[in-house]
Amino acid sequence: MKKPGALAVKARARDQAALSHLDERGRARMVDVSGKPATSRQAVARASVLMKKESIALIREGRMPKGDVQAAARIAGIMAAKKTPELIPLAHPLALSQATLDIRLDDSRNSVEIEAAIKVVGETGVEMEALTAVCVAALTVYDMCKAVDREAVISDVMLVEKKGGKSGTFKRKTFKRGKSQPPPGQAR
Description:
Layout: H1 6-18, E1 39-50, H2 53-60, H3 69-82, H4 84-87, E2 98-106, E3 111-122, H5 127-145, E4 153-163, E5 170-171
Antiparallel strand pairs: 1-3, 1-4, 2-3, 4-5
Helix pairs in contact: 3-5
């Protein structure tokens, strides 16, 4: 096997230096944020759970066998935001200022729509906390409803907006929902 030349080694080192989560040997590491100023940072993420029309009705009427789906998902999402660094290996532990979850039923899509808004004053952003919150909330919706709707689909997980930090503001301009097949028994 041919050894890489000096130029190839330098190019690889330069490329790895651009990836802040890799050390000089290419190993994963947590980024040092101690030199960054603590500033106000916010992130909003969304997810959807597509379900049968009958399942949405059961949630609305409070008749799911496991109980209040929206309340359980809301609490699970908030807890997940706080536990993000335990789930995402290179995420920093943060003292979150606020974590809110909005969970609503959308009859036009036969879906549970989940939105998390997370705030912190810190040295790094809260995008992963917002995304983790909506993912765990969506998984909780599935868990609460699986006895009557195992074919529910978690979809459209995305960062919608982030504010603060060196990179400034990001706001998703548009999102065209995919044309995924609805669960059986659900008309579009």
